[in-house]
Design a protein that fits this description.
By secondary structure, this protein is α+β, with helices and mostly antiparallel strands. 29% of the residues lie in helices and 45% in strands.
């Protein structure tokens, strides 16, 4: 957990993955792969593209904010109450990639959202690693 200047909270999950950034990038940006580890959605890697993710627990509305293949991807993530930003950073290492996911913008009066993100993102990243390991 990190506190930012505007008194919001962030969730940060970092992993070292033994695959190159290009392989992880595919899992972050190809809709059929995203569905395997995150949720079903209509993502397209283009700045300004509005898309949604849907799951049994609900839905989120998103918009691509920044994209620098295969190193940076940022999109808004929210609903009628939550306005947050998810940023993926992929840094090549000698043995693969340092992956960093940060979701910023949780207000202190949103413990359900913050708690859900804290519990959910590590599980999503476990599944992401499984998907990446299967890619050829």
């Amino acid at each position: 957990m990190t506190q930012t200047q505007d008194d919001t909270l962030s969730v940060v999950v970092e992993r070292t993955i033994s695959h190159p950034p290009e392989k992880i990038w595919r899992a972050l940006t190809e809709p059929h792969l995203i569905e395997e580890w995150l949720m079903k959605g209509d993502f397209r890697p283009a700045i300004g593209h509005r898309f949604g993710f849907r799951a049994d627990w609900g839905a989120v509305d998103c918009e691509v904010l920044d994209i620098e293949p295969p190193h940076l991807l940022a999109y808004s993530w929210g609903d009628h109450e939550l306005k947050s930003i998810v940023t993926w950073t992929l840094t090549p290492t000698g043995s693969g990639t340092q992956l960093r996911m940060e979701q910023t913008g949780f207000r202190r009066d949103q413990p359900r959202y913050f708690g859900g993100a804290n519990a959910g993102w590590p599980r999503f990243l476990d599944k992401l690693e499984e998907v990446v390991a299967r890619l050829t």
